[in-house]
Protein backbone atom coordinates (compact mmCIF):
# COMPACT_ATOMS: atom_id res chain seq x y z
CA UNK A 1 0.00 0.00 0.00
CA UNK A 2 1.40 3.37 -1.01
CA UNK A 3 2.19 5.63 1.93
CA UNK A 4 0.26 8.88 1.95
CA UNK A 5 2.53 11.86 1.37
CA UNK A 6 2.36 14.93 3.65
CA UNK A 7 0.49 17.92 2.27
CA UNK A 8 3.00 20.51 1.04
CA UNK A 9 1.97 24.02 1.96
CA UNK A 10 2.42 26.59 -0.81
CA UNK A 11 4.25 29.38 1.00
CA UNK A 12 3.64 31.79 -1.91
CA UNK A 13 -0.11 31.54 -1.35
CA UNK A 14 -1.75 34.64 0.12
CA UNK A 15 -2.95 32.64 3.12
CA UNK A 16 -0.95 29.40 3.01
CA UNK A 17 -1.91 28.03 6.43
CA UNK A 18 -5.60 28.25 5.48
CA UNK A 19 -5.01 24.93 3.70
CA UNK A 20 -4.76 23.18 7.07
CA UNK A 21 -6.37 25.46 9.69
CA UNK A 22 -10.11 26.17 10.08
CA UNK A 23 -9.75 29.97 10.30
CA UNK A 24 -7.68 32.58 8.50
CA UNK A 25 -5.12 34.51 10.57
CA UNK A 26 -6.19 37.65 12.44
CA UNK A 27 -3.23 39.51 10.95
CA UNK A 28 -0.67 38.51 8.33
CA UNK A 29 2.46 40.10 6.88
CA UNK A 30 1.50 39.00 3.36
CA UNK A 31 0.56 42.52 2.22
CA UNK A 32 3.48 44.20 4.02
CA UNK A 33 6.09 43.02 1.49
CA UNK A 34 8.44 41.47 4.05
CA UNK A 35 11.52 39.67 2.70
CA UNK A 36 12.79 36.41 4.15
CA UNK A 37 10.27 36.21 6.99
CA UNK A 38 6.50 35.94 7.27
CA UNK A 39 4.24 36.35 10.32
CA UNK A 40 0.72 35.21 11.04
CA UNK A 41 -1.22 35.77 14.26
CA UNK A 42 -3.91 33.15 14.86
CA UNK A 43 -6.86 32.48 17.10
CA UNK A 44 -8.05 28.99 16.24
CA UNK A 45 -10.76 26.73 17.69
CA UNK A 46 -10.06 23.11 18.61
CA UNK A 47 -8.76 21.44 15.47
CA UNK A 48 -6.79 18.59 13.98
CA UNK A 49 -4.23 19.34 11.26
CA UNK A 50 -3.32 16.68 8.68
CA UNK A 51 0.32 15.74 8.20
CA UNK A 52 1.92 18.59 6.29
CA UNK A 53 5.26 20.20 5.51
CA UNK A 54 6.28 23.78 4.73
CA UNK A 55 9.33 24.62 2.56
CA UNK A 56 10.38 27.20 5.17
CA UNK A 57 11.72 26.99 8.71
CA UNK A 58 8.61 27.42 10.85
CA UNK A 59 8.34 28.66 14.42
CA UNK A 60 5.16 28.45 16.46
CA UNK A 61 4.95 30.70 19.52
CA UNK A 62 2.09 29.90 21.90
CA UNK A 63 0.24 32.79 23.51
CA UNK A 64 -2.85 31.14 25.01
CA UNK A 65 -4.34 27.66 25.00
CA UNK A 66 -7.81 26.62 26.16
CA UNK A 67 -7.04 23.00 27.06
CA UNK A 68 -4.52 21.27 29.32
CA UNK A 69 -2.96 19.18 26.58
CA UNK A 70 -2.36 18.96 22.86
CA UNK A 71 -0.69 16.51 20.51
CA UNK A 72 2.24 17.00 18.09
CA UNK A 73 3.37 14.17 15.78
CA UNK A 74 1.54 11.73 18.01
CA UNK A 75 3.22 12.97 21.23
CA UNK A 76 0.82 14.12 23.94
CA UNK A 77 2.02 17.35 25.55
CA UNK A 78 0.68 18.80 28.78
CA UNK A 79 0.99 21.89 30.96
CA UNK A 80 1.04 24.55 28.25
CA UNK A 81 3.16 27.59 29.12
CA UNK A 82 2.74 31.01 27.50
CA UNK A 83 5.74 31.53 25.23
CA UNK A 84 6.19 27.88 24.32
CA UNK A 85 8.23 27.73 21.10
CA UNK A 86 8.02 24.94 18.55
CA UNK A 87 10.58 24.79 15.74
CA UNK A 88 10.03 22.80 12.56
CA UNK A 89 12.84 22.82 9.95
CA UNK A 90 11.97 23.39 6.31
CA UNK A 91 10.31 20.45 4.50
CA UNK A 92 9.95 18.39 7.69
CA UNK A 93 6.52 16.81 8.14
CA UNK A 94 4.33 17.73 11.09
CA UNK A 95 0.83 17.02 12.40
CA UNK A 96 -0.94 18.57 15.39
CA UNK A 97 -4.16 18.26 17.35
CA UNK A 98 -5.43 21.12 19.51
CA UNK A 99 -8.09 20.15 22.04
CA UNK A 100 -9.14 23.70 22.85
CA UNK A 101 -8.99 27.26 21.56
CA UNK A 102 -5.44 28.24 20.65
CA UNK A 103 -3.85 31.68 20.25
CA UNK A 104 -0.41 31.67 18.64
CA UNK A 105 2.04 33.34 16.28
CA UNK A 106 3.54 31.54 13.29
CA UNK A 107 6.85 32.75 11.90
CA UNK A 108 8.28 31.28 8.70
CA UNK A 109 11.85 31.96 7.60
CA UNK A 110 13.05 31.50 4.01
CA UNK A 111 15.87 28.90 4.17
CA UNK A 112 17.73 30.47 1.22
CA UNK A 113 17.97 33.89 2.83
CA UNK A 114 18.50 32.19 6.18
CA UNK A 115 21.68 30.57 4.83
CA UNK A 116 23.01 33.91 3.56
CA UNK A 117 22.52 35.73 6.87
CA UNK A 118 26.11 35.28 8.03
CA UNK A 119 27.84 33.50 5.15
CA UNK A 120 31.32 34.68 6.21
CA UNK A 121 31.15 32.50 9.33
CA UNK A 122 29.18 29.38 8.37
CA UNK A 123 29.19 26.50 5.92
CA UNK A 124 26.07 27.38 3.93
CA UNK A 125 25.98 23.90 2.38
CA UNK A 126 25.85 22.18 5.78
CA UNK A 127 23.04 23.92 7.67
CA UNK A 128 20.64 21.69 9.59
CA UNK A 129 18.20 23.02 12.17
CA UNK A 130 17.22 20.73 15.05
CA UNK A 131 13.43 20.44 15.48
CA UNK A 132 11.88 21.37 18.80
CA UNK A 133 8.34 20.34 19.68
CA UNK A 134 8.21 21.79 23.18
CA UNK A 135 10.45 24.39 24.77
CA UNK A 136 10.83 27.97 25.88
CA UNK A 137 13.02 30.61 24.29
CA UNK A 138 12.56 34.13 25.74
CA UNK A 139 14.38 35.78 22.81
CA UNK A 140 12.20 34.19 20.12
CA UNK A 141 9.11 34.96 22.21
CA UNK A 142 10.02 38.66 22.51
CA UNK A 143 11.02 38.90 18.82
CA UNK A 144 7.66 37.46 17.74
CA UNK A 145 5.74 39.94 19.90
CA UNK A 146 7.87 42.84 18.59
CA UNK A 147 7.22 41.80 14.97
CA UNK A 148 3.49 41.45 15.64
CA UNK A 149 3.40 44.92 17.20
CA UNK A 150 5.33 46.44 14.29
CA UNK A 151 2.98 44.82 11.77
CA UNK A 152 -0.09 46.07 13.65
CA UNK A 153 1.18 49.63 14.11
CA UNK A 154 2.95 50.26 10.80
CA UNK A 155 2.16 47.53 8.28
CA UNK A 156 3.20 49.40 5.12
CA UNK A 157 6.40 50.76 6.67
CA UNK A 158 7.45 47.65 8.59
CA UNK A 159 9.56 46.00 5.86
CA UNK A 160 13.03 47.18 6.95
CA UNK A 161 12.35 46.45 10.62
CA UNK A 162 11.12 42.95 9.75
CA UNK A 163 14.21 42.27 7.63
CA UNK A 164 16.47 43.38 10.49
CA UNK A 165 14.62 41.11 12.91
CA UNK A 166 14.79 38.23 10.41
CA UNK A 167 18.57 38.59 10.35
CA UNK A 168 18.81 38.62 14.15
CA UNK A 169 16.43 35.65 14.43
CA UNK A 170 18.38 33.65 11.84
CA UNK A 171 21.65 34.22 13.70
CA UNK A 172 20.00 33.10 16.95
CA UNK A 173 18.67 29.92 15.31
CA UNK A 174 22.08 29.15 13.82
CA UNK A 175 23.82 29.60 17.15
CA UNK A 176 21.35 27.73 19.33
CA UNK A 177 19.49 25.22 17.15
CA UNK A 178 22.00 24.11 14.52
CA UNK A 179 22.74 20.38 14.36
CA UNK A 180 26.34 21.24 13.50
CA UNK A 181 28.07 23.80 15.66
CA UNK A 182 28.09 27.14 13.90
CA UNK A 183 30.59 29.64 15.29
CA UNK A 184 29.29 33.01 14.17
CA UNK A 185 32.03 35.47 14.90
CA UNK A 186 31.59 38.80 16.65
CA UNK A 187 33.39 41.41 14.61
CA UNK A 188 34.78 44.32 16.68
CA UNK A 189 35.92 47.66 15.38
CA UNK A 190 33.07 48.78 13.16
CA UNK A 191 33.04 49.32 9.41
CA UNK A 192 36.11 50.64 7.59
CA UNK A 193 35.57 54.37 7.10
CA UNK A 194 35.24 54.13 3.33
CA UNK A 195 32.57 51.43 3.64
CA UNK A 196 30.70 53.45 6.25
CA UNK A 197 30.75 56.50 3.94
CA UNK A 198 29.49 54.31 1.08
CA UNK A 199 26.64 52.93 3.18
CA UNK A 200 25.58 56.36 4.47
CA UNK A 201 25.74 57.88 0.99
CA UNK A 202 23.55 55.08 -0.37
CA UNK A 203 21.01 55.58 2.44
CA UNK A 204 20.78 59.34 1.90
CA UNK A 205 20.45 58.95 -1.87
CA UNK A 206 17.60 56.43 -1.57
CA UNK A 207 15.54 57.71 1.38
CA UNK A 208 12.38 57.85 -0.75
CA UNK A 209 12.70 54.16 -1.63
CA UNK A 210 12.08 50.96 0.30
CA UNK A 211 15.70 50.47 1.38
CA UNK A 212 16.53 46.92 2.44
CA UNK A 213 19.27 45.60 4.66
CA UNK A 214 20.24 43.07 1.99
CA UNK A 215 20.83 45.65 -0.74
CA UNK A 216 23.17 47.74 1.44
CA UNK A 217 25.02 44.59 2.56
CA UNK A 218 25.35 43.48 -1.08
CA UNK A 219 26.70 46.89 -2.03
CA UNK A 220 29.45 46.50 0.59
CA UNK A 221 29.96 42.82 -0.32
CA UNK A 222 29.20 41.38 3.10
CA UNK A 223 26.40 39.40 4.74
CA UNK A 224 23.43 41.21 6.34
CA UNK A 225 24.50 40.13 9.85
CA UNK A 226 28.11 41.21 9.34
CA UNK A 227 27.01 44.58 7.94
CA UNK A 228 24.38 45.24 10.62
CA UNK A 229 26.83 44.36 13.42
CA UNK A 230 29.63 46.60 12.14
CA UNK A 231 27.27 49.44 11.19
CA UNK A 232 25.87 49.59 14.73
CA UNK A 233 29.40 49.59 16.16
CA UNK A 234 30.26 52.54 13.90
CA UNK A 235 27.11 54.63 14.40
CA UNK A 236 25.58 53.42 17.66
CA UNK A 237 22.37 52.62 15.80
CA UNK A 238 20.99 49.57 14.03
CA UNK A 239 20.60 50.19 10.26
CA UNK A 240 16.80 50.47 10.44
CA UNK A 241 17.08 52.99 13.30
CA UNK A 242 19.67 55.06 11.43
CA UNK A 243 17.56 55.12 8.26
CA UNK A 244 14.49 56.23 10.22
CA UNK A 245 16.51 58.99 11.86
CA UNK A 246 17.76 60.17 8.44
CA UNK A 247 14.21 60.21 7.11
CA UNK A 248 12.99 62.37 9.98
CA UNK A 249 15.91 64.81 9.61
CA UNK A 250 15.20 65.12 5.88
CA UNK A 251 11.50 65.61 6.60
CA UNK A 252 12.34 68.48 8.97
CA UNK A 253 14.26 70.20 6.17
CA UNK A 254 11.48 69.66 3.64
CA UNK A 255 8.87 71.06 6.03
CA UNK A 256 10.56 74.44 5.62
CA UNK A 257 9.33 74.48 2.01
CA UNK A 258 5.69 75.69 2.10
CA UNK A 259 5.08 74.49 -1.45
CA UNK A 260 5.34 70.85 -0.40
CA UNK A 261 2.35 69.19 1.26
CA UNK A 262 2.88 66.89 4.22
CA UNK A 263 1.72 63.97 2.07
CA UNK A 264 4.41 64.79 -0.52
CA UNK A 265 7.07 65.07 2.20
CA UNK A 266 5.95 61.76 3.69
CA UNK A 267 6.47 60.09 0.30
CA UNK A 268 9.77 61.84 -0.42
CA UNK A 269 11.32 60.49 2.78
CA UNK A 270 10.16 56.91 2.22
CA UNK A 271 7.01 56.55 4.32
CA UNK A 272 4.05 54.86 2.63
CA UNK A 273 1.59 55.73 5.39
CA UNK A 274 1.03 59.35 6.47
CA UNK A 275 -0.36 58.26 9.83
CA UNK A 276 2.76 56.22 10.53
CA UNK A 277 4.96 59.10 9.36
CA UNK A 278 3.20 61.41 11.83
CA UNK A 279 3.58 58.85 14.62
CA UNK A 280 7.32 58.38 14.00
CA UNK A 281 7.90 62.12 13.53
CA UNK A 282 6.25 62.81 16.90
CA UNK A 283 8.41 60.14 18.52
CA UNK A 284 11.61 61.84 17.31
CA UNK A 285 10.56 65.50 17.71
CA UNK A 286 7.82 65.46 20.36
CA UNK A 287 5.47 67.22 17.92
CA UNK A 288 3.59 66.58 14.68
CA UNK A 289 4.80 67.61 11.19
CA UNK A 290 1.99 70.16 10.98
CA UNK A 291 2.92 71.85 14.26
CA UNK A 292 6.64 71.66 13.48
CA UNK A 293 6.06 73.48 10.18
CA UNK A 294 4.37 76.41 11.98
CA UNK A 295 7.38 77.08 14.21
From TrEMBL:
InterPro entries: AraC_XylS_family_regulators, Homeodomain-like_sf, HTH_AraC, HTH_AraC-typ_CS, Tscrpt_reg_AraC-type_HTH. One of its GO terms (molecular function) is sequence-specific DNA binding. Signal peptide: none annotated. Keywords: DNA-binding, Transcription, Transcription regulation. Residues 197-295 form the HTH araC/xylS-type domain. SUPFAM superfamilies: Homeodomain-like (SSF46689). This is AraC family transcriptional regulator. It comes from Gloeocapsopsis dulcis AAB1 = 1H9.
Amino acid sequence: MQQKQPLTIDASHQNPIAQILPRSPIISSHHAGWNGIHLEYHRQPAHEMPEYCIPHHTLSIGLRYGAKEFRVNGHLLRDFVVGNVGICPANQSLSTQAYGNAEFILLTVDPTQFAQTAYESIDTENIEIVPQIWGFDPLIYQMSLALKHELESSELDSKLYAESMATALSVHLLRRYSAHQQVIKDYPGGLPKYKLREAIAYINEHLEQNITLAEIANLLQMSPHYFATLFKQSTGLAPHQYITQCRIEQAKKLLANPELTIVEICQQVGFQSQSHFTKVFRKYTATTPKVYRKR
